[in-house]
């Protein structure tokens, strides 16, 4: 039977840092990304695609706030749903067009996905999820006062607004996602990390104003649908130790224990590679294979030829 791969598309697959965030620029990036995804479909992998929404949901939030005297604003959980809708549409249509050009007949389904979170998560008190545009330190300090935004430094890339990011506890509708995938559909699910909701057995489910990290929820999704591979596609060929230093070293094929040691040694930045390696580690611990690699090398990485591959301790073999 063909392997199920949960693919988490990084922000760069949708928007390049140095480009204007217009619809056309984002669509062109998605079209390029879909060319690489279609190669995986051609190889016979079953794809479940998830994607980020940090830049997009941050700008949508800003639009809602800035227009609030003219148009009533919507809460952040609804804005997450909006990003699932429009990014899902852009991926679905671009992928279908690419598959059609390659004479591949596979249906693509975008699924609005809610994700259960805790009402007690500590991130509500000290928000960590960067969204929207990058600012200089000076601009960030002004926005903190004028707009009452919480601002934090995002690795070495500038300052960004931060919003709460609770950990995903359960992907609601995971059974349906699995069924759709097993029936031969490409499924786009858990976009933007999913819509965060609090579920209590005695009360109605209720949405929460937060943005979940898509690498964390992608890993949870892979775990819950029992995927074979969890793959994080970004803009860098490997995960590195001593990244950016003279003695940096690309990580190729490693065990859970080795990766755990590198995480403890503090090699990975909180706002960029950190969540990816933690998600990769977490999935490998459940018995699957995790891969972090460049989007344009996805096919080779699945054949074990490139990328950072994290194997479960007992499974030191490459994926094919
Ligand atoms: N240890 C590391 N190894 C590799 N890349 C790293 C490391 N630490 C930080 N990075 C940075 O992480 C970036 C990828 O993270 P990010 O930009 O958040 O990805 P995406 O937007 O694709 O999800 C790389 O371009 C690289 O600059
Ligand atoms: N929700 C989320 O993690 O989005 P980004 O990957 O775009 O930050």
TrEMBL record:
Keyword annotations from UniProtKB, A to Z: Arginine metabolism, Kinase, Transferase
GO molecular function ontology, one term from the record: carbamate kinase activity
Catalytic reaction(s) noted: hydrogencarbonate + NH4(+) + ATP = carbamoyl phosphate + ADP + H2O + H(+)
SUPFAM superfamilies found in the cross-reference section: Carbamate kinase-like (SSF53633)
Taxonomic superkingdom: Bacteria
UniProt keyword Kinase present: yes
The keyword Kinase appears for this protein: yes
Entry-linked Pfam families: AA_kinase
InterPro entries in the cross-refs: AceGlu_kinase-like_sf, Asp/Glu/Uridylate_kinase, Carb_kinase
Transmembrane segments: none
Protein's pathway: Metabolic intermediate metabolism; carbamoyl phosphate degradation; CO(2) and NH(3) from carbamoyl phosphate: step 1/1
NCBIfam families, per database record: arcC, PRK12352.1
The protein's name in its UniProt record: Carbamate kinase
Chain's gene name: arcC
């Amino acid at each position: 039977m063909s392997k199920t791969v949960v693919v988490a598309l990084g922000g760069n697959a949708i928007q390049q840092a140095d480009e204007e965030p217009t619809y056309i620029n984002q669509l062109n990036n998605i079209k390029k990304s879909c060319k690489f995804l279609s190669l995986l479909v051609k190889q016979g992998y079953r794809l479940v695609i998830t994607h980020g929404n940090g830049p997009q949901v941050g700008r949508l939030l800003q639009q809602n706030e800035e227009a609030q005297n003219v148009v009533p604003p919507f809460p952040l959980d609804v804005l997450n749903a909006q990003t699932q809708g429009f990014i899902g549409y852009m991926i679905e249509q671009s992928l279908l067009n690419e598959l059609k050009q390659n004479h591949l007949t596979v249906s693509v389904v975008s699924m609005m996905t809610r994700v259960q979170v805790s009402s007690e998560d500590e991130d509500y008190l000290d928000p960590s999820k960067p969204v929207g545009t990058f600012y200089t330190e000076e601009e960030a300090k002004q926005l903190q006062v004028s707009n009452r935004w919480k601002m934090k430094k995002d690795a070495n890339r500038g300052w960004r607004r931060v919003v709460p990011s609770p950990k995903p506890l359960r992907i609601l509708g995971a059974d349906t996602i699995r069924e759709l995938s097993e029936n031969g559909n490409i499924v786009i699910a858990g976009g933007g990390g999913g819509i965060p909701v609090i579920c209590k057995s005695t009360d109605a489910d209720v949405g929460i104003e937060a943005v979940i990290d898509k690498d964390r929820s992608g890993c949870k999704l892979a775990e819950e649908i029992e995927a074979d591979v969890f793959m994080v596609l970004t803009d860098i060929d490997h995960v590195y130790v001593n990244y950016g230093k003279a003695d940096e070293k690309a990580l190729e094929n490693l065990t859970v224990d080795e990766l755990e040691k590198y995480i403890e040694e503090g090699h990975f930045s909180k706002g960029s590679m950190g969540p990816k390696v933690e998600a990769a580690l977490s999935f490998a611990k459940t018995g699957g294979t995790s891969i972090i690699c460049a989007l344009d090398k996805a096919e080779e990485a699945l054949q074990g030829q490139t990328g950072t591959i994290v194997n479960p301790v007992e499974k030191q073999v490459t994926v094919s």
